[in-house]
Amino acid sequence: MRLNNKRILSFVHHDFEDLELWYPVLRLQEEGASVDLAGEKAGEVYKGKYGVPVTAQLSFDDVDPSNYDALLVPGGWAPDKLRRFPKVIEIVRHMEEHKKPIGQICHAGWVLISAKILEGKKVTSTPGIKDDMENAGAEWLDEAVVVDGHLVSSRRPPDLPHYVKAFADVIAGDHKGQ
């Protein structure tokens, strides 16, 4: 399995988009990766927009980003909450500075906007935050998945197969794009 020994961190908070968390987590685990879920409080149960629960294994403050190979940011309404935590922003900036893969889908772009890491990047997201992404300095593309170096972005749940494959490719070092 090509992601053996890879550690991936995923943020969670209430009202995450259920498929945008669970589909990537399960697919990455199938590839051999270990995925840790971090929320505001360790042990807290967070419910997705459609009621699927997830329990945070760590609090944001417990996370040492240097222990992770990649970061997954699910969409839904959770990103609007996530971007308010200084530690979340610190983790995103660490991953950006060290060019570790960052996967974001749908509204997850709000977290990257707040971390101020999108200037000059090619990205996609739900069309509803296209203006936000462009105002943050990104070039927005209406594509199922956009890979710009270590940043992998996608629009919405129907794009998940393309998104998660591209994200896994980048983590494994198999992506031949930009």
From TrEMBL:
Q: Where is the DJ-1/PfpI domain?
A: 6-167
Q: Per the record's keyword annotation, is GTP-binding included, yes or no?
A: no
Q: Which InterPro entries match?
A: C56_PfpI-like, Class_I_gatase-like, DJ-1/PfpI
A Pfam match: DJ-1_PfpI
Q: Which GO terms describe its molecular function?
A: peptidase activity
Q: Which keywords does UniProt give here?
A: Hydrolase, Protease
Tell me which Gene Ontology terms the entry assigns under biological process: proteolysis
Keyword Ribosomal protein on this protein?
no
Lineage: superkingdom: Bacteria
Coiled-coil region(s): none
Tell me the protein family, please. Belongs to the peptidase C56 family.
List, alphabetically, the NCBIfam families matched. PfpI
Q: This protein is called what?
A: Protease I
Q: Which organism is it from?
A: Fictibacillus solisalsi
